[in-house]
Amino acid sequence: MQDEKILIELARLILPSGFVENFKITSIVSNESDVEISLDEFDNIPEEREEHRVESKGFLDAVVVRDFPLRDKRVNFRVRRRKWYDHTIGEYFTNSYDTVYKGTRYSKEFAAFLKAIPGDISPIGPFA
Questions:
Q1: Which residues of 54-70 are buried (b: 16+ CB within 10 A; e: fewer)?
Q2: DSSP character for 107?
Q3: Considering the chain, what percentage of its residues have pLDDT values greater than 90?
Q4: Cα 98 to the center of its chain, rounded Å
Q5: CA dihedral 57, 39, 68, 116 (to 10 degrees)
Q6: Pick from 106, 35, 22: which is nearest to 70 by CA?
Q7: Which of 21, 52, 63, 84 sits between 20 and 30 A of 124, alpha carbons compared?
Q8: Number of H helices and number of E strands within the chain?
Q9: If you write DSSP's letter for every residue of 47-66 in order, what string do you get?
Q10: CA 81/CA 69 separation, integer angstroms
């Protein structure tokens, strides 16, 4: 149990805010220039639908979210959200999370950092 707490705390340091509570890490792949962390949404049924008969219908296609580099490697999160079917009202739905900066595929924190850097960012290196 102590090992799990340590890993969760490490994940909190690496993942953007809100990811640890809503997604589980399913894989981590690293090469010379990139780190790719795959995440799947937990079975998070929204409170307003807890009284409904809701069924998971798998996952939507993964969305790639860019984040701060780690050890001079680009970091990409491959995020899969669940698709749900609400039998009570007869409609599909997904949960939405406020983790990506509007109009980009960057985490909110990384986008705020990039906006604060004066000038252009080189197309080579971990920020590319």
A1: beeeeeeeeeebbbbbe
A2: B
A3: 40
A4: 10
A5: 30
A6: 35
A7: 63
A8: 3, 7
A9: GGGTTS-EEEEEEPPPEEEE
A10: 23
CA 24, CA 101: separation in Å to the nearest integer? Answer: 21
Q: Is 49 exposed, middle or buried (0-12, 13-18, 19+ CB in 10 A)?
A: middle
Q: What is the pLDDT of residues 82-127, one digit of tens each?
A: 999 999 999 999 988 888 888 888 888 888 888 776 655 555 455 5
Name the nearest CA neighbour of 97 among 14, 5, 22.
22
CA neighbours closer than 13 Å in the CB half-sphere of residue 21: 6
User: Which residues, including other chains, have CB under 8 Å from residue 76's CB and lie 6 or more apart?
Assistant: 34, 35, 36, 37, 64, 65, 66, 67
